[in-house]
What does this fold into?
Amino acid sequence: MGLLCARLHRALAISAVLAVTFGLPAVAGGTVTVTFWHGMSGVLNPAIMELTNDFNKLNPGIVVDAQYQGTYGTLNQKLIAAVAAGSPPTISQVFPNWTDQLIRARAIVPMERFIKGPDGLSEEEVADIFPILRQENTFDGVMWTMPFNKSLYLLFYNEDLLKQYNLKVPETWEDLLAASRALTREEGGRTVRYGFVVRPTTDYFLLMLITNGGEFLRPGNREVAFNSEAGVEGLQFLVDLVQKHKVAYVLSAFADADFGASKVAMYYATSPGLAFAKAAVAGRFTIGLAQVPYRKTRATLLSGTDVAIMAKAAPEQQAAAWKYIKFITGTTGTARWFMRTFYMPVRRSARDSTLAQVYLRQNPEHRAGLDSLATARTAPNLAEWQEIRDIIQDAVEEAVLGKKTPRRALDDAAVKANRLLQQRK
It folds into this structure.
């Protein structure tokens, strides 16, 4: 059954104790208990607790216990271990490549079973979910998961600085370079503010790839395409911002703290990053949001997780889990989630609701994310893609730190990635 099963077998010996730690009764005193594992930290956690508490109040026969599990990486490890031990939660956040693994391990049930069931969704309600989100949650024609906290990459910028220097918001790579030059400031022989920051991550590179007309995989999904000329040019652009033009620096951490301290004027982040940026800026200047600058193709990367119902859950838990998922992804639920967290609403009706429209009139900068939906791209929803992401990240780090040329780094990464894809059954 592929990558997940191999991990499950390795994890099983050390994970049996989790059955006692994480197992909860399906029914206690007539109440159905649903456990929901998530990775919503910081300012995002109160938002998910608010929705969950409201659901519990409206549904006295159900108790949803939303449990923060740590970072997404930690959540993935815990989920693998819990599945191996036979004691997974009822619901979990999952990335699409995790879903592929879980399907092959028969660890989840298709969401479509509930969508088409007696307490399901009408054709109109299904069509109301943005097409790209339905597509990302569909495997071999079956909708296995439901989109929840979906986000898009945007350009974050210091609006006050751009106005001060009479600069337009960058739309192209060339604009980004020009603005970064203008906004980089030196004092006493050292740089005290950079125009841009390069995080040596897979997603930073993938943004350059897709905005330069590149593709993730070649037809047939047996070979990667990220080492094409589009990919090499994109990675070279990031390297040049740092090493040649000296208008950007390399930062492994999130950039919101440096942004708030005015050490950098622009950076890429996903839409919910606005909550963290606002906390860091603390009102000292106006935060601007814009679509990601492009060279050949206007595009952005869809990110964030979906929710899955575990196959081990009792039938009454699965039914209760579906009711909760309908609540948090329904028109009102997803509109509230959008306004509290800046994740994208998953439904057209939520985007167009009076609630959201009033909010957008008061916060017009948030339209950048919604406008980007039309050009969003999804990464491959293959189990192997998680490991391929790690391979790409190593290549990006090698290039931006000057250890390899962009072409060499990407070609070496492609060899490793292709080996994984060719082993796929």
